[in-house]
Amino acid sequence: MSVTRFVVVGASAGGIDALSRLAAGLPADFPAPVCVVLHTSAQSPGVLDGILNRAGELPAHAVKGGERPQPGHIYVAPPDHHLVVEPNRLRLTKGPRENRFRPAIDPLFRSAAQVYGPAAIGVVLTGNLDDGTAGLAAIKQMGGVAVVQDPADAAFPSMPTSAIRHVKVDHVIPLAAMGPMLSSVVTTPVYQGAAAVSDRIDIEVKIAKAEDPIKSGIEQLGQASPFACPDCHGVLLRLDEAGHIRFRCHTGHGFSAESLLGAINERVEDALWNAVRAIDEGARYINHLSRHLEPVDAARAERFAAEAREAQRQSEAVRHVVTERESLKAD
Q1: H/E segment holding residue 132
Q2: Domain residue spans of the chain
Q3: 3-state helix, strand, coil in the chain (%, to 5)
Q4: How far apart are CA 35 and CA 8, in angstroms?
Q5: 7, 38, 46, 331: least buried by Cβ within 10 Å?
Q6: Which residues contact 229 (CB under 8 A, 6 or more apart)?
Q7: Does domain 6-185 have CATH number 3.40.50.180?
Q8: Is 82 tagged catalytic?
Q9: Which residues pair with 146 in a beta bridge?
Q10: 49, 106, 130, 131: which one is catalytic?
Q11: What is the rounded CA–CA span in Å between residue 73 and residue 29?
Q12: Structure confidence by residue, pLDDT tens digits, 186-224
């Protein structure tokens, strides 16, 4: 059966419930494939397909790679793999993490825009930060339809809010109305005035497919910034898309402005905890020396003990900083 419309859905925090409710609202004769990315850890047991299979009338499958997408089926990205769309085929890749996740939403959305153009329908649901915004913009650029869960209806409104702020969204609706709305959209005629696929979309889809970023043309995407990639410490290129700032390194890791700040906050906290560990280890070692010296050189042993107490005081001061600090914000 030929595919005339293609639906891609992305969710993060609060996404299991939201995706279950969305699946419950889709009829058994839904005339398009639905591909789903939910942010998960690499260690996740990967049970989302079973949950969605029980939630509604459409069969849900964990993608294994190579499937030919069929109307009326839900395809779920497994943990630690990007899901990308190719002509009449679904593909799994171990491409670089984007917005700190694999699977990430933007690679799926961009590939759907590249392959299906105006026939693609992107749906951004609940979640923190802003994965999905850049991919939804690519779908709109290609003449597709952009759908966003109403932030007031989302358990975590950041992802829907970001999409609305940066993309000319077609529909902002609560989950309860999304199934009937999608059923209507997938049966409407496809827009015929789509633009040609941009080099940027092609390059970023190649990166998601784990192709060499340099050979793929990553250096065309933006200018070198003064910032280093939190994952590999390479130079980050800055991409400015009509006010939506993103970053990519030469290895291919991708960050929105928000996800980069989130990664920086994690690195700051890691560094502070490492400082606590290092000072504590030093204090324990000095105490060890003090105890060994005490029988033969009491004065020197006491000096060591005093140094250990000072190290412990420093450790407690740094521990207070790491437990009481507020994360860096860009409000």
Answers
A1: none
A2: 6-185, 212-252, 261-324
A3: 45, 20, 35
A4: 5
A5: 331
A6: 235, 236, 247, 249, 251, 253, 255
A7: yes
A8: no
A9: 122
A10: 131
A11: 10
A12: 999 887 776 788 999 999 999 999 999 999 999 999 999
